[in-house]
Amino acid sequence: MRKRSLRTLISLSFMTLLTGTLFLSPAAALHTEAAVKSVRICLDPGHGGDGDNNHGVEREYDGKMVMEKEITLKLAEFLKEELVNYQGVKVSMTRKSDRKLSISSRISTAKKQNADYLISLHINSANDSADADKVKGCMVLLPASRYQPKGTKSKSIYDDCTRIGSAVVANLTNLGLTLSSDLDADKTGGLVRRPYTIEAGATKNVKYPDGSYSDYYGLLRQGVEAGIPTLIIEHAYLSNESDYRSYLSDDAALRTLAHADAQALVDALELKKRK
What we know:
By secondary structure, the chain is α/β, with parallel strands linked by helices. The protein has helices at residues 2-22, 26-34, 68-83, 103-112, 157-174, 218-225, 241-248, 251-269; strands at residues 39-45, 58-61, 64-67, 89-93, 117-124, 139-142, 191-193, 230-237.
């Protein structure tokens, strides 16, 4: 009789364990889904619209004018296609068509989307000079200061951008892109931090509230002030025919760049594929 009771007890305990692990209640299932880390990424296709510098850099190849604004929009679309396949990831874009946007409106969009990261996509071009066509490669522009506004979700904007930027550079160079010699990027591992100082080429010195020098590039400066880790990826040089033919000339090449960017974000942010 005592053996039978013990056997019954063991059986009941086993059934309880089985039903508890294999048959989750709707509330428990919802709790499990909620445990997935939520990441909001805002993609910013550089330039857009007409007039001024809104086309971005442009060069004629094979009888057609190739514009940065068109390349960056495609890159953003291809990058979004990849990122939405990861758990908890929500992707927005500052523009989905060919339209002019100010820097402040790009930051405003990222803020409205409650973005955790703002990734600005660009294509580079060398200054007009005798050796302009020889300059090629990639770089990532990052915040130059460790300034943290109050209420920032990121523990360290500086460190978050460094982690993502390093992963991006590693993936782009793995494709065969070199590090650009512009701004001495080839001497700094492809990561460029340019402060808003006279020494760095600005007309005056400008500082953040903590006394550190502000960022030279407006998008980075306003992104930091908004508390959003913001970086600018300069993928390749449209002014260099080799870069153009290898990395920018068709959708297949752009998808390869987008895949490299996506995997960099996956690695840096430890993203997991949707099941």
